[in-house]
Specification:
Elements: H1 2-21, H2 25-45, H3 56-86, H4 88-93, H5 99-127, H6 136-163, H7 167-172, H8 174-179, H9 195-202, H10 205-217, H11 225-251
């Protein structure tokens, strides 16, 4: 059964990836928003914002990376919704394939597409002056956090992709996720915020994830932030996975 699942997932993953390669504008559209934000904040607002970092692009990049992922997972919900509308899911149900492989193919496609988008954003940041002296282990840790974060949000995206009544409804859920980094330490230090906003910013998942990534590539002590970040990512991933699989089973039971 396990071998059957892996083979089916690989085949369906190839199908989903072929759709992306035929419409590379999907990835380009995903990276336009975060890159535009990065350009605007660095070159328009950056001179007026005071942070502990000498380079504002170095301070800003972790939040932009999370916004990139939040933008990208909207397409996962969209692709799932379109497959639901086309009737391909019903066709898959009548075929001798592992049921869960259909969802996993979409999730892994999202992971691949988002990793490509993240690489593009980092390359643009390098052109803008981003520099890091972090070693391979630190960058591996950053990559692991971003993969966990992407998987967590992707499984979250599966739910509206399966249940939405319209295309707009399928992708609209990502808007709050894109906005969340603005209420965190992604753009400015939280100690500059008024009391209630600061309390929310310091205790929501994006702040700990941003702080952990920033500390890793600036070679600063990560402290408890990395464990809090991992706890948030794993917690969201587990809850989203369970809810998504329950929704999928009920939809096609």
């Amino acid at each position: 059964m396990t071998k059957h699942f892996f083979i089916d997932t690989i085949v369906l993953l190839g199908r989903s990836l072929s759709h992306i390669t035929r419409s590379l504008d999907t990835i380009l559209t995903t990276v336009i928003t975060p890159i535009a934000m990065m350009l605007m904040f660095v070159y328009v607002f950056g001179g007026a914002i005071r942070t502990e970092s000498d380079s504002y692009v170095n301070y800003l990049l972790p939040g932009i990376l999370l916004i990139t992922v939040a933008s990208g997972i909207a397409y996962t919900a969209f692709r799932l919704f379109m497959d639901m509308q086309s009737g391909i899911f019903e066709r898959f149900q009548s075929m001798p394939i592992a049921r869960s492989s259909v969802l996993w193919a979409h999730v892994l496609t999202s992971l691949v597409a988002n990793l490509i988008s993240l690489v593009v954003v980092v390359l643009v940041a390098l052109l803008m002056g981003f520099r890091s002296g972090a070693g391979p282990l630190a960058w591996l840790a950053v990559t692991a956090i971003l993969i966990l974060f992407t998987l967590a949000l992707t499984w979250l995206a599966v739910i509206p992709g399966l249940t939405a009544k319209s295309v707009d409804g399928a992708s609209a859920f990502s808007y709050p996720l894109i906005f969340l980094p603005f209420l965190s330490s992604a753009f400015v230090p939280t100690d500059t915020m008024p009391g209630p906003v600061r309390a929310f910013a310091e205790n929501q998942p994006v702040t700990s994830i941003v702080n952990a990534i920033r500390a890793l590539y600036t070679e600063q002590p990560v402290g408890a932030d990395i464990w809090i970040a991992l706890a948030w990512c794993v917690g969201i991933l587990v809850i989203a996975y369970v809810l998504a699989t329950i929704t999928y089973r009920r939809k096609f039971s």
